[in-house]
Amino acid sequence: MTFDTRFLGPILITCILLVAHYSFGVLESSTRTATAIVTAIVAEALMGRLTYGKWPHLASAYITGISVGILVRSPFVWPYVLCSLISIASKYVLRLRGRHLWNPSNFGVSVVLFLAPATVTLLSIQWGNVVWPMAVIWILGSVIVWRVGRLHVSATYVAAFVVFAVARSALTGVPVAAAVAPITGPMYQLFIFFMVTDPRTTVGPKWAQSVVVVIVAFVEMLLRLAEVIYAPFYALFLVGPAALLVEALAGPAITSWASRSWRPLHGS
Fold first, then answer.
1. Which of 141, 220, 239, 264 has its CA 20 to 30 A from that of 154?
2. How far apart are CA 223 and CA 232, in angstroms?
């Protein structure tokens, strides 16, 4: 009997939720988080059944719902419901050649933030000086994304974020520690381990996946320099689909060129 790797994501994100909440009380309301999860699961089940005539696997919907429940901050229930519905609907409506273009929770969160900035904000808590919660999540997260072949994506993004944070510090005078600090928060754990690594919304070649997340980190830096709030989400919102479109339109030519350019370096 083999373990279904589709359950690794739900296990990791549940651990992030539990560690973050019981360490820092990150959830504004467990009821609203549960509402986001149930909404995402029901929407996925119904849309999958209506679209494909069969019940879909709901692990992805659970990840989307719990991401919305952790990230969204609002005194109202409707943003949680709306964000989950938009996230799931994007998988079935915004598609190209049989695949969706946006990571669902990234799309839903970005749209709701843009449409309702007065009533919706995002989680901004950081781990602070308490190291063990971050260490637990990073170790577990690294093992899981390694198991699904996406550790290089997370690692490349983190490295690029740190490099651009140092560059931003030099340009603005912000202390390096303050520039790097956001990556230690629960919000970034979701971003690093789930959004940028989403297999359905990342390009195919590994080298291209690494290039794309470096571009995401660069665009995020530019948005931060422009004082755009929620820069990482908007950066991925812009770069991710653009990369998939480039791959769809020019992918074979780029891959062929990269292969020809790479082989001589390795003497093969």
1. 264
2. 8
Q: Is the pLDDT of residue 266 over 50?
A: no
Could you give the number of structural domains in the chain? 2
Q: Are residues 196 and 210 in the same domain?
A: yes
Element (H, E) at 96: strand 95-96
Give CA 223 to chain center in angstroms.
Answer: 17
d(CA 24, CA 153): 28
Single-letter amino acid code for the residue at 28: E
Q: Are residues 165 and 45 in the same domain?
A: no
Task: For residue 70, give the H/E element and its range.
Answer: helix 59-71
What does the CA dihedral 10, 11, 15, 17 come to, rounded to 10 degrees?
A: 20
Query: What burial letters (b/e) apply to 218-239, b meaning 16+ CB within 10 Å?
Result: bbbbebbeeeeebbbbbbbbbb
Same domain for 155 and 87: no
End-of-domain residue from the set 99, 122, 145: 122
Length of the chain measured in residues: 268
CA distance 203 to 250: 12
Place of tokens 């994501």: 9
pLDDT of residue 197: 92
Task: Report the first-to-last Cα separation within the chain, whole angstroms.
Answer: 40
pLDDT at 254: 57
**pTM of structure:** 0.85
Average pLDDT for residues 215-233, to the nearest whole number? 94
